[in-house]
Amino acid sequence: DEHLSRFWYIMKTRTAPMTPRLLSILLLVFVSSARASADPADSTDEEPHPDPNEEDYSGMVYIGRMDENGRRVGFDMDNGIKYIFGTSFDETHKSIAESSLAHAHYGPDVEHDIADRSRGKTREQVLHEQRIGKLDLSQGPKPFGWFEEHPLDGGAVPPRVVRVEPFFIDIAPVTNKEYGKFVRATYYETEAEKFGWSFVLSSFLPNASSLETAEVDPEAEDWVATDNAYWRNPEGPGTSYKYRENHPVVHVSHRDAAEYCKWVGKRLPGEREWEAAARAGIMDPTIVPCSFPWENRAEDGWRGTSPVKSFKSNAFGLYDMTGNVWEWMRGGKHKSRIVRGASYVDSLDGSFNHAATLGARATLHGTTTTGNVGFRCVKSPRRRVEHHWVYENESDSGSQLVLEDSDGNRQFSQYNQPRQKIETDDDEFEEEEDYDPTKPRPDERRGRKKVVKPRTLTSDEL
């Protein structure tokens, strides 16, 4: 061994006397060096996180914590953002802002730097509430994923402080032009094309006589099931998306949206991510109430969807976060997928349909396609590549029933076969006649390898 030879060479050529302590230290250094050269993966330090300031994507905005110089905070600190998640239709969120969000601290010492005096509680009481929380049993137990909705805009009540990891989000919803590139490149067929129909607003139908025999949505009678309506023909046969290339793409299902995001290397946003981006903006301009759906004053210049970026962006530089089209989220169950943002058929005051507020929320079946639902994509920043060890045959060995007698003989179940023994010419690995049950058998000696650990995001969203 090279390291052992080097150690003995130093011992022989050394002229000064060596104490036992110095000898043990020197031996330990050489042993560690030998192990590092034999298995570099064990000795190398963990790779640092990439700097988020060096990462940018065209047409996307970074949402995350910034320092006092306007630079993005790295992953060496808590760089997620906190905000009040819930309805914005009433004033219920203000008291939460004053008592909770205003006193939220960041940094490596956040657990030990709590604004106790401002809350009127001891530090121990605050920590206990953060870790344990309060359980309200006044209205009985709630099922998993329970979401208490506001009666007008569908947002969560009561609002609560939440935290989201940093992310990038599209500046605007995906347009017809962008979705057309995806369809031409992949020959993708949307679910509306497969089904042969989609929902169109009754006042947008080119032929009003078709209303006499048309089928409507039982929960929204103003939406008519129109044959051959899909993203290229938004109102059915005889209509076209031409001259609307920069409008948000509509008549796409949850799967149609997710497939596009996957194609461009992104994903659908979580609703907490979406609302964190939306709440950086200003309130929508006042909408004058009208008689829905037949009276359409088009006071913003458009009867239906408007071209993206037609109106002022919010403080993050994001467009159309409310009021143009509903946007698919990645949460929810298949029969109740989440959409956020409201659309052009909603009102600000909730006098008809939903209230077009920052907290506006609704659920649709995952296969629903309609003329007022689109989407945008998000992307997570690059993270450090993490590794872990996996053992040979671990994935396919499975659990199996094994009976072992006092002599060490094993009997495997008929559904599983034992792993093959390692063939070797080395005598030290040969099984002895007297088996010691406290030592691993030769067929249990498994090699290990270092593999990339998959990064799994966990969330308490629906």
From TrEMBL:
Which taxonomic lineage is given here?
Answer: Eukaryota, Sar, Stramenopiles, Ochrophyta, Bacillariophyta
Recorded superkingdom: Eukaryota
Q: Provide the residue span(s) of the region labelled Disordered.
A: 38-58, 409-462
Protein name listed in UniProt: Sulfatase-modifying factor enzyme-like domain-containing protein
Record's keyword annotation contains Signal: yes
Sorted alphabetically, the keyword list is: Signal
- Compositional bias (Polar residues): 409-419
Signal peptide residue numbers? 1-38
A Pfam family it matches:
FGE-sulfatase
Amino acid composition bias (Basic and acidic residues), ranges on this chain? 436-446
The cross-references to Gene3D superfamilies, in alphabetical order and at most eight, read: paralog of FGE (formylglycine-generating enzyme) (3.90.1580.10)
Which stretches does UniProt call biased (Acidic residues)?
424-435
InterPro entries, per database record:
CTDL_fold (IPR016187), Sulfatase_Mod_Factor_Kinase (IPR051043), SUMF_dom (IPR005532), SUMF_sf (IPR042095)
Annotated Sulfatase-modifying factor enzyme-like domain ranges read 150-379
